[in-house]
Structures are given as C-alpha cells and as structure tokens.
C-alpha cells in the first residue's frame, strides 16, 4: 500500500525530487492534541453556485488551528472554490450564490453585518501564480499594513514579514527594487510576506507551487510547515506528494457527473494516504483516476 | 487502365489550373493592398514635404526668431507682424483649459466603467460615450456659441467669442478619448493584482486607487497626452467659439485665435496664393504639426513602457 502510493505520487508529482523512501508523512498531527483548541475555521453545509451551475454541494469540515490542512482532488472538483469561501473571495465573482455558514472564531463570516474586507484581513491568501504588485519589494510587503492603517514601525514589520517568509537575506539590500524583478520562487515568498504582514490568523494557499521549479517548491513547502506554528494554513494542491509532505490533515474532494464538488473524506493525512476510508479516495491517491 | 489514368489526369490538371488562378488572385490582392498602403504613406510624406518646403520659403522672408518670439500676429494687416506666440498661446490656453475638464471627468468615467460599473451599465455607457465622440465638431462650436457662452454670461462678462467657451466644448469633446483610452489601460491591469489587493483587506476603492490606477498610470497618462494633442489640433469648434482675434492673453473671457482657426481664416479668405500672407499658414501648420507629433511620440513612448510592466 505504502509502496503503491509512493510510486504513483512520484510519477504524478511535480517532480520535486524530494520523495524519500518510506516515511514522507510528518507525524506532527498527533490525534491527542487536535481537540485541545477549537477549530480555526468551521465550514457548515456550504453549497455554492456559479450562476445556475452548482459547484459545491453541502460541504462541512473543521480546519484545525495551527496546522497545515491540504485540499486535494481532481481538477475542477471545487478545491479553489471552497478555499475562496473561507475569505469571501468568491463574493468578487458576478453571479455567485452561497448557502451555509463559515465560522471563524465563532462568527459567521457570511453574517449580514460582516464586511468582506474585514474577513480578508484575518484570512490571508496566496495565489497560484505569484502576483506581486508592480511596486518595490518594501511597498509590496507594507501594502496591506498601510491599507489597514498600521501605525507601528513599518520598517520593522517589513523586515519581520520578509524574515518569516524566508526572503529577507536575499532582498535586504535592495528593498527598493521592483517585486517583479525577483525570480518566480522569490516572488511567491514575497506574496507570502505580503499576506502575513497583515497579521492574519489563517493563510489560504491555492496551489502556491504550481508555477515554481522543484527547488523553489521545496522552500515554500518548508515555509508552510514553519508558518504553521503561528498560522493556520490551508493549501490546495494537485500534487499528492506535496499534500503528504506538508499537511497534517487532508480533505479529499470529488465532483460527480453533475459537476458538483463534494467532500469525500477528511482525515489525518497519514490515514488518507495509508488507509483511506473511501474507495474513491484510494482510487485517486493511487492514481487510478482524476 | 487507360481510362483510369485519363480520369485521374484530367481532374488533376484542372486542379492545378484552378490553383494557379487563385495564386494570381492572391498576388493581385497583395498588390492592391500594397498600393493602398503606399498611397497613405505617400500622402503623408507629400503633406509633410509641402509643409516643410513652403514653411522654409516663409522662413526665408521672416526670421524664425521673429516668428517664434514675436508677440504680435498681424500678417493680414498693412502693418504686418509675424509673431506666432499669440496663436500658440491661444491654442495652449484652450488645450490646457479643456484638459481641466476632460482629464478629471474622463478619468473618473474610466475608473467607474472599468472598476465599478456592472456589465449592464457598462454596455449602456460605452456606446453613449462613443456617440459623444461622433458628434461633428461644428455642432460643438454652435453649442459653445449658443449655450456655453450665455451660461458663462451668468457669472462673468465674456465677449461673444471667447476662449472659455472653446475650453468647455473641447473639454467635453475629448472626454471620450480620455475615458476610452484610460478604460483600456485600467482594463489591461491583470485581475491577479486586484485579487492580491482584495486578499489583504482592501476595499474596492482602495484596490482601484492604490493598485489598479498606479499600475495603469502610464497608459492613463498617454490618454491625457493624446487628448491634449487632439485639443491642440481641434479646428472647427474653436474657430466658431473662440473667434479670430490673435491675442496674447491670460483672460479666457476674451476672444483669441488658435493656430488652426488662423489656418481656416486664411484658407477660406481671398488671400492670393504665393504671397507671404498665404505662406504663413504653412509656417503655422508646420509648427502645429511638430507640436502634435511630439505629443503623440511621447504618448507612444509612455504606452510602450506601460506594456513592459506585465511581460
Ligand atoms: N468564476 C467561475 N465562474 C464559473 N464557473 C467557475 C468559476 N470558477 C470555477 N468554476 C467552476 O467551478 C468548478 C470548480 O472549480 P475550481 O474550484 O476552480 O476547481 P479546482 O480548484 O478544484 O480545480 C469547475 O467546474 C469550474 O469550471
Ligand atoms: Mg484550482
């Protein structure tokens, strides 16, 4: 079983080349300490429609605090859509309708009196394609803090954020340089610095490594695990090997013939990969469809 | 056997003939298109040549120094003076005054269209702006004379022909240019950047003012320059609205004359060809041409830089 998974993951993976034989799973997520703190995000019966086409069907799951949670599943199964439900980015798309609740710290972020921009201050996001602003590295990082009226030591905040994003040493001498002048991997770390400079509780990452080479991918993966001590991370990935390497819990999603994405299984990552409860999960992780 | 080869040979040669005919047709089309392009290029070259030749002849009689520094423009009077500054001053006053209307209104319209309007509103507003751009400029001229000047008369005492009314109508006239080109520039800003700004808690207004507008700035500035260039070259409306009194003044309530209006005046008048009076229009036109050319080149440069940003 393990061997099976290993092999398929290596074949279908983005070629990160870091597959170690045997244990690829980080056993940080011990089941004992999971219930100690309440979940960071509680998703309750969320359904979503793009116009008349339903894309999510009644999804419920609890995202554990200070953990890396991976969303996996075949392309088009609604991973990105579910991720964007957690910071109301879907609100920006015309014709989207959402039912259900998403609780963060006990508050429904879709509540009538909630301003989506306040939600996004608490729930940051890193996108599939690195998207730094055509501004200096410094201004990229400081952007969110300025928007949110940060009055403290901006230089300190920029340095701290870049350090946390493991980019400081590479850029500390040219913070005035355009963010677009960096390499793809550096740009993505800049985007992570930009996201955490607002001091969010949760950071959503939508296939953050899909545009990066294996070495840059490795650095982002390491970073995700470091960040998990301070933030709750939710990462969408089509790379099962990556999910296995970085995440504590994994949600497997699947869309049927009706194109409605549903949650099939949500378990500790090693359970999902070693002993999946659902036949379709097993088929997916062994590469038999998707 | 023989029948078969004849059967295959027949259609095949016909096929080749048809091909040859089509090739000739293609070649002919190529030549026609080339000729059309050549006519355009030659016309432009011809116009520029005439401007330069006639203009140089003019500068044989009148020193460029007198032309470009003189403050009196009376080439059609017995007491001739050839200082073009009053015309340039009138032209720039109208263009700058117009920019005070077209730049803010056009920019806000573009921002609204690109960032705030729903697709439905956009579908209605865009064509309306195009209609505004399609109104003949002579209509704007009479609008200035019959509506704008009387309106200004409520607050001040303009002469019948005055620069202010020309500023207003040229400003309105160039709004579609600013809004349409700026809208293009704003629209070209990748959605990625908007998403990134939203994702750190920006409101739509902040996304627009802090990310989209700055990212599109060079394209937006190019639209301002092109609109100014258009205002400088605008003829009919300013001739009707601002009058034909060469006048080096800062007072927009007075009548002035723009470069284009002077050219119209001489062209329509009975000034005999070949005289120095007549040649003044080539000197003025050459100056005008250089002014708008420089503006258009700057706009093109700025736009080119703007493209680089996203590649
Ligand atoms: N902006 C949109 N408008 C309409 N349909 C969309 C939009 N975004 C995604 N979809 C549809 O919703 C489904 C789920 O998409 P997505 O969440 O992007 O899947 P994934 O990230 O798992 O590949 C797909 O069928 C996709 O075509
Ligand atoms: Mg996706």
Describe the structure.
The complex is a heterodimer of chains A (290) and B (311). In chain A, helix 8 links the parallel strand 7 and strand 8 (232-236). Chain A has helices at 2-12, 79-85, 116-122, 137-147, 154-164, 168-171, 184-196, 214-227, 240-246, 269-274, 279-285; strands spanning 41-50, 53-63, 68-72, 96-104, 107-108, 123-126, 202-206, 232-236, 249-255, 261-268. In chain A, helix 4 (137-147) packs across helix 5 (154-164), helix 4 packs parallel to helix 7 (184-196) and helix 7 packs parallel to helix 8 (214-227). Chain A is globular, with a radius of gyration of 19 Å. Chain A contains 11 helices and 10 strands. By secondary structure, chain A is α/β, with parallel strands linked by helices. Chain A has a single domain (31-285), classed as Rossmann fold, CATH 3.40.50.300. Chain A has a 6-stranded mixed sheet, with helices on both faces. A 4-stranded antiparallel sheet of chain A has the order 2-1-4-5, with helices on one face. By secondary structure, chain B is mainly alpha-helical. Chain B has 2 domains: 2-61; 85-305, MetI-like fold, CATH 1.10.3720.10. Chain B is 78% helix and 0% strand. Chain B has 12 helices and no strands. In chain B, helix 5 (137-152) runs parallel beside helix 10, helix 6 packs antiparallel against helix 10 and helix 9 runs antiparallel to helix 12 (276-308). Chain B is globular. The relative contact order of chain B is 0.13. The model of chain B is unreliable at 1-7 (pLDDT under 50). The interface between A and B is medium-sized, with 27 and 22 residues. The structure holds adenosine-5'-diphosphate and magnesium ion. Adenosine-5'-diphosphate (ADP) binds at residues 50, 55, 73, 75-81, 93, 259, 261 of chain A.
